[in-house]
Amino acid sequence: MRLAGNARFAALPSLLANRGGVLKPRDFDPINIIISSLNIYLRKKEVGALPQSAVNSADKPLLAVLKGERRDPPPIWMMRQAGRYLPEYRALRADKGGFLDLVYDTDAAAEITLQPLRRFPELDGAILFSDILIVPFAIGQNLSFVAGEGPRLTPVMADARIRDLEPHMQRLQPIYETVKRVKAELSPQTTFLGFAGSPWTVATYMIAGQGSREQAEARRLAYADPGKLDAILDLIAMVTVDYLSGQIDAGVDAVQLFDSWSGSLAPAQFERFVIARTAWIADQLRQRHPDTPIIGFPRGAGGKLGAYAREAGIDAIGIDETADPAWVHRELPENMPVQGNLDPLALIAGGAELHRAVRRVLDAFSERPHIFNLGHGIQQDTPLAHVEELMRQVKGGE
């Protein structure tokens, strides 16, 4: 498939118009140069694309739940399970260097992806070790990670123009190589999850050049120059579709869209910047990979969670720890698979508090397809013994 100027976005204007926003053709003019570069990349990629193999979901409990089955006990994985709470990860990072060095070292990234499965064999899912900012890095921003402070992106898109970016789509290729290496080593019962950041969350970093309090820079741009924000979001959406499709071709079984900062938006903006873009990505992916489940994770959505579940085109929804699981069960479409939503701090607490928190989640979702997970990423100071305790309770029915 080749990008053809504005035609690549044909589904977006009507989708956004239905939700109170209208895009005009001129809104996309700044991305034409980048589209030309993307076309070159996609033509090269198509030559070497791997056929997607058929997956027997009956052999993979987590994948079966994503496709609508109820399993007892529920499958389990943890967001950020491949990471810094594990001593083996910290040792590898000390040996290899910084975070981005690990992401682009395919041997190291594959090893990190597999580490939690070796330590906790009860896990039903592997999550690719990478970062949501690989997409803006490929689009053309420079990316670095400052110790103790987080990511930095330049040029800062609050001031720069999209046409100032020079795309480097080859920066996605090592991620696909990591997927292939992990896939070759995974147990047949383990579901392999790929991921990307949703356009709004990725845009907040691109516009501010770093993480920002309440995502103020991106929200200001929404009022000051909505056409520019729309163009940034749509470019992210376009590249995200190809990025996730590449992960699926390389071997992941399902994908998750992280919208970690969706909770900062007012309802009308949430509809336009979160739901509409997620729906477009889901539609495009489903055309290419109709059997691959898509998990949406709109962190902080709160009362907007039901609209997201009904309109965003996803197959399953992840919920954060602030949502009451009993309310979620009542609010969501019947039989929609749910993922979550143990508070990561309850996992740190351990003991009786952890036991009660796990029980509340299990009881609330006992009548629908459920994947046990945290409400957000596992914290760095989480005791390994508490993770073992969690596995025993979820899998052993304690």
Walk me through the structure.
This protein has 398 residues and is an alpha/beta fold. The chain has a domain at 5-49 and 128-318: TIM Barrel, CATH 3.20.20.210. It is built from 17 helices and 9 strands. The protein has helices at residues 11-17, 32-47, 61-66, 87-96, 99-104, 106-119, 134-139, 173-185, 199-208, 216-224, 226-250, 267-288, 305-311, 325-331, 344-349, 351-364, 384-396, and strands spanning 125-127, 142-146, 150-154, 191-197, 254-259, 294-298, 316-318, 338-342, 370-374. It has a 7-stranded parallel sheet. A hairpin with a 3-residue loop joins β2 and β3 (150-154). α1 packs antiparallel against α12 (267-288) and α9 (199-208) crosses α10. The chain is globular. Residues 1-33 and 39-55 have low confidence and may be disordered.
By DSSP, the count of extended strands is 9
Q: What fraction of the residues are assigned to beta strands by DSSP?
A: 5-15%
Mean of all residue-level pLDDT scores: 88
Helix content: 40-55%
Oligomerization state: single chain
**Count of helical stretches:** 17
CATH architecture of the domain at 5-49 and 128-318: Alpha-Beta Barrel
Radius of gyration, taken over Cα atoms and rounded to an integer in Å: 20 Å
Biggest beta sheet attributes: 7 strands, parallel
Q: What is the terminal separation in angstroms?
A: 51 Å
Q: Uncertain segments of ≥5 residues (pLDDT<50)?
A: 1-33, 39-55
CATH topology of the domain at 5-49 and 128-318: TIM Barrel
* Overall morphology: globular
Q: What is the ordering of alpha helices and beta strands?
A: HHHHHHEHEEHEHHHEHEHEHEHHEH
**CATH level 1 name of the domain at 5-49 and 128-318:** Alpha Beta
- Output the strand order for the largest sheet: 1-4-5-6-7-8-9
Label the structural class: alpha/beta
